[in-house]
Amino acid sequence: MSLKQMKKIELHLHLEGAAPPAFIRGLAAEKKIDIHRAFDERGHYAYRDFVHFLQVYEAATSVLQTPEDYARLLQAVLQESAEHGVIYTELFVSPDFCGGSDVAAWRDYLAALQSTAAEAEAKLGITARGIVTCIRHFGPDKARASALCAAETAGDFITGFGIAGDEGIGKPGDYLWSFDCAREAGLRLTAHAGEWGGPQSVRDAVRDLGVERIGHGVRAIEDLALVDELGERAITLEVCPGSNVALGLYPAWRKHPIETLRERGLKVTVSTDDPPFFHTTMTREYEELERAFGWDEAIFAEIHRNALDAAFCDTATRDRIAKDMELT
Ligand SMILES: [Zn+2]
């Protein structure tokens, strides 16, 4: 079986960040919005560094203005994921971008997303769940509004809450109210940390916010006591190696700590983060991991088991995916 055909689970994918550039350019042309500066001459997303990446990301997102736009986006994204063997995916969605964190507007966006996800499940065999994500550099007040949207719509589709954005701004504890609100609504919790922030950012997210998963978290490797603590707490890492290499966090795949973290017993998983921005796909991630660390089918099965154990879905969905992937 080729790595492309291998059935996969993805836990860390930003909906807008997964937008194919051609889709965004097409939508910009329809709406007569000029965003040519977001692209290079080959039509790829163009950015200089992480902060500029966030700006280009937000420029691309600015053409997504209605529930219908988001429905079309989700359709394109799930189609792409399914082509790379993904049968279960969790997407970060932000009420900040979908209706300006107004609960009524958010419900309209969500209805469009949910019906698109149901269609994709029937047609493409891919199951999707949404993790409402607040944006760290938008500040704690906006995060509260996102958490309220999440709490109001927690259910079959919205199953988690998280935080993304610029890790250099504020501390995880500034967002405690939002995470408590989401937890009380029955949502599962994850937080981006240990990408641009060092090991302490991971420790803070785990201890202060009580999350069960960390987005990235790879810089935990710089503090082995923290690695042991993550193991004891059974924290799962949503590792996105291609993203880290593309953004220059590590100079090459072989230098990425995913294999060392795995060997030390941490539950690691593999995702693409914002794939077209990083010129990656789930297939490419698997190919590079096979090349860099000799990962074989047994290790990929271990990664899939980790992902399924940490997935923010109900037991019936988990059992169905486990059966489909022969992970029982
Ligand atoms: Zn991310």
From TrEMBL:
Keyword Metal-binding recorded: yes
GO molecular function (one): hydrolase activity, acting on carbon-nitrogen (but not peptide) bonds, in cyclic amidines
Gene3D superfamilies, A to Z: Metal-dependent hydrolases (3.20.20.140)
Record's keyword annotation contains Zinc: yes
Domain Adenosine deaminase: 8-323
Entries under Pfam families matching the protein: A_deaminase
Enzyme class at the top of the EC tree: hydrolase
Keywords for this protein: Hydrolase, Metal-binding, Zinc
Family annotation (InterPro entries): A_deaminase_dom, Ado/ade_deaminase, Metal_Hydrolase
Cofactor: Zn(2+)
NCBIfam families reported in the protein's UniProt record: aden_deam (TIGR01430), PRK09358.1-3 (NF006848)
Designated name of the protein: Adenosine deaminase
Species the sequence originates in: Pseudooceanicola pacificus
